[in-house]
Structures
1.
Amino acid sequence: MRREPRIVAFCCEHSGKLAAGDESSSAALPDNVGIISVPCSGSVQTIDILGAFRAGADGVAVFGCHEGSCKHVTGNKMVKKRVEYVARTLEEIGWNRERVAFFPVAAVESKVFRDRLAELSENVRDRIHGYEKCLGKQSESAP
Amino acid sequence: MNHYSKTVNSGVRLERISVNKRVLVVGGGMAGLETALKLTRLGYEVTLLETAESPGGSILSLSSLYGLSGESDLLVQSRIEAIKQNPAVRVLTGARLVGVTGTVGDFRVEIEQAGQTIENRCGAIVVATGLEFGEELPGTGSPEKTISHKELERRLVDLQQSETNRSRMPSNICLIVEDEGVDSAMFSASALKNALAIKRLSKSSVFVCCDNVNVAGSGLEELYREARSEGVVIFRLEDMRPQVRETRTGLAVTVKDSSAAAPGGWQGLIEIECDLLVLPERATVPADGVSLQHLLNVSCDSDGWFQENNVWAKPVESNRRGIFFAGGCRGNFDVEDILAEAKGAALEVHNLLRHGKRLVPVGRVAVDASKCAVCLTCLRSCPHDAIEILVDDKGHNKAARIIDIACEACGICVAQCPANAIQMLADQFRDQDVAVSV
Amino acid sequence: MIVAERKPIAEIRQMLESHRKILVVGCGACVTVCMAGGEREAELMAATLDLVFRNDSKCFSVDCVERQCEPEFLDPLTGKVNANDCVLSMACGVGVQTMAAQFPHVPIYPGLNTHFMGRPLEQGLWSETCAGCGNCILYKTGGICPIARCSKSLLNGPCGGSVNGRCEVDPDNIECAWQLIYDRMKEAGTLDLLDEIMPPKDWSDSAHGGVRRVVREDVML
C-alpha cells in the first residue's frame, strides 16, 4: 500500500495561511498536509523544522512572504537561511535535502501554494516508494 | 487537513502605558512645516528641527521644477509665518539630530545646535528631511551642450525676461526625463512644461525622451496633450539608456522606440541631432540623511529613500512604531502628495498619542533573564527595535528585555535566541503541536 | 570569547554508535554566544541525532548548565549523567574536561571543536583575535594583536606577502594585521611608537612554554 507523504507546512499568517485558505474553501488541501500558522515565517525555528521530521513528517515546507515584502522586514530572509541550514544538515546525515524548502507566496496565490505543496510531496513520495520497493516492504519514511 | 491556529495564553495582560505627547519633526521644509502645523491644530506641542539657518527647504530653490513658478514662496512663507507665531512649536534652526534612544511614547533625543547639545523627549518622531539634487549629470557630454533640468529652468527664466536671448536659443533641444536612479515622476511635469515654454518662446525644435511619461498628477494629462499639439516631439526610451555621441555640430542622441519601428526588422532606433541636451540630475536624500537612517535604525529602499519598498509599508509608516516619514525624503516629488503625506503623518501620530496613554499587551513575548547570556543576538535581529538590554544600578548589563509598546510579536527574536531565553506566550506552538499536526 | 563549532555529524555518529542512552549537555556561556553549544544548539543536536539514528533504539535527552567548567554547576547533573550511557558535551574543551573530571566513569564525548579566542565581526561571523600569548603588547600596536592576527605572528612590521592589505596565506579571508596596525596608528597619530624595535618574543609565557597556571593567593579560601 502506498503511503501518502506526511507534509508539515509552516505558514506565515500574512501570506501562506491566507493562500492556504480555510476548511471551507473550495479547493481543499489534501489530508496528508498539516498547516501550522505562525505570526511571521521568521519565527519558525530550526528546531521546529527538525522537530517536525522527528515527529514523523516526510517533508517540511515553510511558506513566507515574497522577497522584500515581509511585514517584519527581515523575517523571510532569516528563515530562508535556517531552511538552508536544515537542508545541509539533512544532507550531512544522508537524507535528501529537498525534503525541506522555503516557498515565497502572496496571500492571494492559492494556486502557487497548492502547486508548491504538490511539488514537495512528489519529491518526497518518490523517495519513500523507492526505498520501500528496494526493501520489498512497507517501512518508515526513507532518507 | 489539520489547521493549527494560535493558542491564546492567559499570561498576556493589557497595561496602560503613558506616552509623551510631544512630537519631534525633523526637517523644516514643506512637509515638516505642514506636519507641524497640522499637529498643533490637533493639540500637540512640536519641536521642529532644521539644519539650515531658516526653514523652507529645497522647494525655495526648486520652485519652478515643481511647476509652481513663484507660488512656492507663498506656500512656504505663509507656513513659516504661521509656525513662527504659534507658541506650540519650538523651532530650532541650525540644528541636527545626533542621538536617539528610547522607544515610541518615550523617545530621548539629542540635538546639536551651535556646538551645544540639547536634550529633548518626545513620544513620536516625524522625519521630513526632504531631498536635494546632485550637481553631477549622468553620462558624458560637453558641459556647454549638456545641462541639467534645473539649469534649463534658470535659462528659461532668463529667456522670459530678455527678448534678445530668444534668438540665441539652440535650434534643437533634447530633454531626457529619466535615468538609472531617477524616476520619471521627478521631471515629467517640468520637462513638459519647459518644452511647451521653449516652443512658445522660440522657433526651436524640442524632443522629449521618456519611458513612461508620468501624468499621475493634476493637470498633467492636459499638459501632455498641449505639449504634443504644439509640436513637442515625444520619443519613448525603451530598454536602452540613450546613447550620446559628439558630432561635428553638436550631439547625437540615440534612443529606442519600437512604436516607431517599421515592419521588416528596423528596431526603432532613432538618432536625434541636437545642440542642447538636458539630462536629469539625481535627487537623493540629503547627506545627513544617511546617518539619520542609522541613528533611527529605520529601513530605506535600494535608492536610499526612507521606507522599504514593501507591500506592508503603508504610507508614512516606518519599520519602527512611533517613527514616521513624510514628503521628499520618501522619494516623493509631487507637492500635493507631499502635503497630503504631511497631514497623514500628523494623523498617524495623533492616533498613537491621543489619549496620553496606550493600551499595550504586555508579556506576549518575554525574556527569561536567568537564561539570557546577553549575546545581543535578539537586539540585532529585531526589525522593530523593540529590544533593550537592562542594566542594574551600577550600569552592568543584566539581560535583554522586550519593549512591549514597540513589539510586534513577530517571533523573530524567539527564533534567533541561542539560549532559548525568549518565549512567545500567545501564538505558541510546541513539539506536541507539531506532532499532532503530523 | 571562546569560539567553537559543532563537529561534523559523521564524526559524532561514530562516537555514539555503541551507546544507547545519550545525554546531550549544553553550556550557557561562550558557546551559547557563538551559536555552537547553547541550550538551543544542544536541542538541535539531539533532534538531528534522533533522525540520524532513527532506526536504532537510541534515547536522547538534553540539559544545559550555566557553565560547564564549574563543578558546582555540574553537581545537579549527577543523577542524569548516571542514568545515561554517555554524555555528548556541547561545551568548549574546558567544559568537556571538567565534565570528564567530575564523572570519570562515564564517557564524555566532545560535540564541538574549540577553535580560538575571538570576537564577532558581524552577527554570525567570528574572527580570531587573541592567542593567549601571556604577554600583552596591544598598547604598542594600536590595539591590534600581531601574534593572533598576523599569520606569522611577526612583531616588527609586515612581510613581503602583504598585498593590498591582505595576507598571502588567504587573501580572501585574512587581512594583513600589520596593515591594520599601521592604518590604526596613523589615524591615532601614534606611528612613532612603531619606531621601537621589538626583540624576539619570549614564548615561555605562552602555550609553548608548557601548561600554565594563574594563582591569586589572596582570594584562595
2.
Amino acid sequence: MSETPTSPQSDVASSPAAPAPRKPVSLRRRLIGRLLAGTLLLSFAADAAVYVHLRGEATGQFDEAMFAKAQAIAGLARVGNDGESLKLEFSERSMPTYSGSSQHPEYFVIRHLDGRVLAMSPGLVGKELFVPREANDPAGDQGFFDLTLPNGRDGRAVWFQFQPATENPAAKGPELLLVAAGERESLDETLWSVLLGMATVAAVLSVGTILLVMIVVRDALRPVQSMADAATQIDAESLGYRFDIAQLNAELRPIGERLNDLLGRLEEAFRRERRFTGNVAHELRTPIAEMRALADVAVKWPPPPEMAAKNFRDVSMVAARMSAVVTSLLALVRSQAGQDEIEPEPIDLAAALAEAYRPFAGQATAKELSVSFEVPPGLVVRTDRAMLSSLVGNLLSNAVSHTPRGGEVRCRAITQEPDAIRLEFRNTNPGVIPSDIGRLTEPFWRRDRVRSEAGHAGIGLSLVKAYASALHLAVAFDVDDPKTFRATVTLPRDSASSASGASTTETFRAQSARDESLA
Amino acid sequence: MRVLLVEDSQILRDSLSTGLRQAGYAVDSAADGKAGLWSAQSNDYDVIVLDLMLPELDGLSLLQKIRAEGKEAQVLILTAKDAIADRVKGLREGADDYMVKPFAFEELLARVEALARRRHGVKNPRIQIGEVVLDTAARMVYRGSEAIELAPREYALLEYMALRQGQVVTRAEIEEHIYDDQVDPMSNVIDAAVYTLRKRIDAPGKSSIIQTRRGMGYTLNAQPPQLAQPQVAGKA
C-alpha cells in the first residue's frame, strides 16, 4: 500500500528534472543578444511610428489639395431659377485635367443625394464613379476614400455635401453631393520614397548598432575576460598568485578579494601538506638509514655473535620507533577523518588520569620530575573513553618528555563552571616560546629541527588537537609564564552524576529532550 | 686515511664507524655539533662525514667554521633533507659531496674513497708504484698479476704513502691519518708497521719501494733514491 503513492510521486518528481539542465549562456552573448534585440525592436517601433505619422501627414496634405480643388468646382455651380437645373461655369482650359484627355485625368460628379446626376467632368461621360454609401446620407458631411479610377488606376477621392448658390437669391439651393477623384500616384510615390529612405536608415542603423554593441560589450567585459585568463593560469605550482585588487573594477573587486583569500588559504594548506609529507619522509628516513647501515656493514663484515646480538637489538629498537611513528600517523589520519566511533560514557576523571599517567611514571621518576595531580575524586565527565585516554596520555607524554630534568608537571581540574570541567596541564619547558604556539600542533614540527633520542616523533600535540576536534572539546595551548607551557582541555560534566544543583537539572532536561527526539 | 663522523643517531654512528674501520679507515666520531667542531679543529682529517641536523651546533655552521679556519678536509654531507635547495646550500657552504639518507653503505664507502683521493690530488683509482699497483676502489694491492693480502691498517698506510708518492711522509702525519683516537701509537708502532708492509709488498732480492729518510720519515718511490733524487726534487 505504501508503495503505490510513492511511485507516481517519484515519477512526478523526476519528470521536471528530466530535461538536461541548460548551460548558462555566456555573459557576452547574453548582453549582445539582449542589447541588440532591445535596440533593434525600439528602432523598428520608432521607424513604424514615424512612417505612420508621415503617411498621415502626406495623405492629409494630398487630401486637402484635392478638397480645395473640389470646393473650387462646387463654387462654380449655380442652381437655376427652376431650382432643378445646375449651371456649371466650368472651363476646360482652366482645369485641363478634368477634360478626360489628360494623361493624369481627374474626375468629378455633382448629383442629388438620391443619385440623380446633375453634372460630371467630361472624362467621366459614359463611365461611373464609385460613391460610398455614407455620402448619400443627408446627415453626411464630407469624406475621403481610395478607389479604382474609371481608367483603371489607383485613385483617391473626396466627397462632400453642399448647397450651391442659386440664381434666385431668395431661393435656397438643394443639398447636393460632389465627388471628385484623381490619381494617387504622386502620393504613393512620396510614401514609397519615404518608406525606402527610412528602411535604408534603419538598415544602416542596425548594422551600426550591432557593431557598436559588440565592441562596447567586448570592451566592457575585457576585465572579466582577463581575470578569467589569469585564474585559468593558476595551478598547484602558482598558488602565490594574487589578483591586484586596486586594478580591478568595482564589480570584480569582491570576487578578486575572495579569490585572493581562497588562494592564500590554499597556498598555506599546500605548504602545510608539503611540510607534513617532508616531515614524514624525514622522520622515516633516519631510522631506515640506521637499519640499512646496520645491515650493509654486517653483510660486508659479518660481526662476532655478541656484536650481532647488539645489532639485532638495535634493529628491533629502530623498528619499534618507526612503528610508533606509523601508529601515531594512522591515529592522526583516522581521527582527522573522523573514522573513530565516538561512544560517550561517564568517566571518572581522577581514575582516567591516573591510568593515562602510568606509562610515563617511570620516565618521570628517572628525570626526577615533580608531578602533581589536583583532581578531586568523584568528578565525572561524559565523553569517549578511549579517545580521552589517548588525548590525556599524549598531553602527559608531551609534558614528561619536554620537561627538563628536575622540572615540574602539574595537572589540575578547574570546576568553577556549572557544566564543564577545565583540565589544565602545566609543565616547565624553558625551550617553548609564544611564537611557537601556532605551530605546535603541526605534525613533526620542532623548533630546533633536531631529532630527539627520546623517541618523540612530534605528532603528540597534533593528535591531541585531532582528538579534541573529534570529541568537540575545546583545547588551548599557551606559554603561561616564562618557561611554563600550559595546555587546557574543557570537558563536559556528566549530567547524571554531577552533584551541583540548578545547572544539573538544566543539562538533565536537555539530555532527556534529546533522548525523546531520538526515540 | 682518517675520517671524522659527526652524526647524532647513535646506531648510525656505531655502524658507520664499524664499517669504515673495517675498510681500513681511522675513524673518530662525534655525537653533536660542538664535539664535532672540536675534533675537526684539533685534527687533520682527510674526510669528514657530516650530518646536518645536529644538536648543539648544526652541520652547516660547523662546516662554515672549519672552512673559515682553512681546514682542507673533504666534507661529505649526510642528511635526511633531500630538497635541491638544501643540497645546493650545503655545497655552496664548502661541502664536497652530498648523500641523502637512507643510503647504501657501499656508496658511502666509494664516495669517502673518492674524497680521500681528491684530498691528495689523485683522481685515478689505480696507483702504480713500479711493479706494485694499488686498486683503491677494490682496496686491493698487486705485484704484477699477483694479489698481495694486506691487513686494513697496512693497506691504509700503503695507500696514504701512495697518494703522496715521491713526497716525504713524516711519522706524525702517519700517526694523524692512519690511527684514530682509539689507538695511541708510539714511534716504534709506525716503524713496525712499515717493516711489516715492506716485507709484504717488496719483491724478494730487490730494494724496497719504501725508503727511510732519516730524521724525517718515509718516501714511497719506485726508483732507488740515488737515481730518483733530482726528479723527486723537481716533483716536490
